Amino acid sequence: MERLLRSYIMEHPAMLDDLRHVRELELPDGYVAAGYIRNYVWDRLHHDDIRSAHNDVDVVYYDPNILGEERDRILEQSLIAATGNGKWSVKNQARMHMRNKETAYTSVEDALSRWPETATAIGIRLEWNDELSICCPYGLDDLFNMIVRRSPLFADRAYYLKRIADKRWKQLWPSLTIIED
Length: 181
Prior knowledge:
Blueprint: H1 2-10, H2 13-24, E1 31-33, H3 35-45, E2 57-61, H4 70-83, E3 88-92, H5 96-99, H6 108-112, E4 123-126, E5 132-135, H7 141-144, E6 147-148, H8 157-167, H9 169-172, E7 177-178
Parallel strand pairs: 2-3, 6-7
Antiparallel strand pairs: 1-2, 1-4, 4-5
């Protein structure tokens, strides 16, 4: 499935451009993640050429030495200036445990493992040799089998269910299987 995800990304010039812009930031353990990948794959699996629910471009990285939010805002503005897309969201995962009231995360992979759904807990990055690296603590099976499942480390079931309802995923991608518990 990693090979299939890589081929999907390599076939999408605009995504590759976004990944190049993020690569140029040289963020420690930096990835483009979440819905940017999930929604694109689900669109492809539903034979939809339009990025139907492209709300933002999530960029995650891990730098325990600079925990303030100002750096993230500067990085977002840099990406907006480079791409003309105002939907960038950059977050240092070394501080996100505080917002989520959890113990400190040890890496991007650890942070992703605590995201609400397994199919959302996926990051990709373009390496300097133009190879794609994938960070997916729960693998890619749920993503490609179109299964929405709560991540094992995400305890708030009520939030998970509300999130799914609010995002209207089943209406956007009718072939999804949503597991409520």
